């Protein structure tokens, strides 16, 4: 009996010890790959994307401003159906089948495609297949406390040759309008290009935001990491689910 108790304690200790490692080892994000109808042009890395489980559905999420980087001249609004032949999330530097996305669920032909999209910087897609390599996240339901550790998972343009999924960690400062201010030591904004669309999660791997922007530090010294909060995302999801 004593040996059984020791074995159970050892298994429990091992589980607790390695659970954080297993969580961090999950593939949470991939990169956007867009094939356009015009001339069949394919852009293989236009920011990051990830999956969210909300109620009984799985959605694919990225930022609206990737359309500013990917767009062709004819794309003037937050609408892709007449321009994009296929939108996929693919694993960067890993051999997995890509995830093919369906309809853009918050498409809006009246929303002009310009820098103002940063105010509601979320694209929400339906997912047409069983996820092949990404672990869907869930939404955090409670407010973020000052000083909490938050992390973004994704790849940048500067490290795309070697990155599968890197981690960028900082500490929450405050919420300002539609953004979360996060202090990230030694952050160089120029090296974060391409990370847009990556999920920002708490220590329990619950979604709190999406990599969107940086903001001049309120102290006037350097910049703060400024992901978009989930406020607008929740509005979209509630409309989709009739809540």
Describe this structure as you would to a colleague.
The chain is of the alpha+beta class and 243 residues long. The chain contains three helices and 16 strands. The strands form three sheets. A six-stranded antiparallel β-barrel has the order 1-3-4-9-7-6. Strand 6 and strand 7 (99-104) form a beta hairpin.
Biggest sheet, spatial arrangement of strands: 1-3-4-9-7-6
What letter string, H or E per element, gives the SSE order?
A: HEEEEHEEEEEEEEEEEEH
- The level of helicity is 10-25%
Spatial separation of the terminal alpha carbons: 52 Å
Structural class computed from helices and strand pairing: alpha+beta
The total count of strands amounts to: 16
Q: What's the pLDDT, averaged over the residues?
A: 90
- List unreliable stretches of 5+ residues: 1-24
Task: Give the tags.
single chain; 243 residues; alpha+beta; 6-stranded antiparallel barrel; 3 helices; disordered N terminus
Briefly summarize what is shown:
With 243 residues, the chain is of the alpha+beta class. The chain is 16% helix and 38% strand.
SSE layout and pairing:
Layout: H1 2-25, E1 29-36, E2 42-43, E3 48-54, E4 57-62, H2 66-70, E5 77-78, E6 84-90, E7 99-104, E8 108-112, E9 123-127, E10 138-139, E11 149-154, E12 166-176, E13 179-183, E14 199-201, E15 206-216, E16 223-229, H3 231-241
Parallel strand pairs: 10-15
Antiparallel strand pairs: 1-2, 1-3, 1-6, 3-4, 4-9, 5-8, 6-7, 7-9, 11-12, 11-14, 12-13, 13-16, 14-15, 15-16
